[in-house]
Amino acid sequence: MNHLTKPHYSIDTIFKALFIFLILTTSLTSCSNMLFFPSKEMRDSPLILAFEPKDIWLTSPDGVKLHAWWLDADIGNPANQVIKGTVYYLHGNAENISTHVRNVLWMTKAGYQVLLLDYRGYGLSAGIPEINGLLADVETGFRYLQSQPNVMNKPIIWFGQSLGAAISSAVVSLNASFQPKIDVLMLDSSFTRYRDIAEDVAKRHWITYPIAGIARANMPKSIDPIEHLKTIQGIPILIMHSKDDRVITYDHAEQLFSVLSEPKSLFTYHGPHISAFSNVKNQEIILGYLDKTLNLTTKD
Prior knowledge:
Elements: H1 11-29, H2 32-35, E1 37-38, H3 46-50, E2 54-59, E3 65-71, E4 85-90, E5 94-95, H4 97-100, H5 102-109, E6 112-118, H6 131-147, E7 156-161, H7 163-174, E8 184-188, H8 194-202, H9 212-217, H10 225-229, E9 237-242, H11 251-259, E10 264-269, H12 280-296
Parallel strand pairs: 1-5, 4-6, 4-7, 7-8, 8-9, 9-10
Antiparallel strand pairs: 2-3, 3-6
């Protein structure tokens, strides 16, 4: 007769397992803790300083002080003698504008001026990151942009990457008054739904795999990019994504593109997450897209 021996677990092992489980499930009930990885350290470099970023200070509706950078367009060479337009840049969920600025420095050389916003809790911005606060911060940045004399009567390119792209989808959709002012909406490496990406990330590691369902259930649903993008009409939208992206997989881009109204475009590149513009050829392709699209776009 075979006897099955019950496995023996020490009290210490059981306690540690329960502790890990409680920590994970507690953090998941506060979904904002999963989404945001800000850094308060502003990283200077000779390259960044050469572009002379100007500090901009804004205040969100709930009184949170926000920091942004303004980059002037380089119009001091024969190729760019006028400002082509303004880029409103919203970065991903980690670090701050000082580590993401290289994604748009090249646009200033092509004649575009750029506003880069740090959400609450990021960089020099005050406050603590949470999703509704970020939505308000992004609205605040765009209202500031519209009020600037050097922006008026020039094309506006709204450019979000990763989490910045996801937030952009909701803010543009929910603010009908913004839409006639936006000439191009560029979304790089976005995801379809917050619950989809939370579940996907949880399933990538054996420790968090068992609670992937909890991760999914505790994500916000009312601001899912794929639902908001369905409602946007009349704005040229460019979806960008890397085939090699291991953070947010390429199928998210395909799903987002499928729900868009015309005019819409999909640009597929290769390389890591949000790495498109480390490649000069990709820069040239996007500049060509903007030249063509802005020539066809008129503002009310």
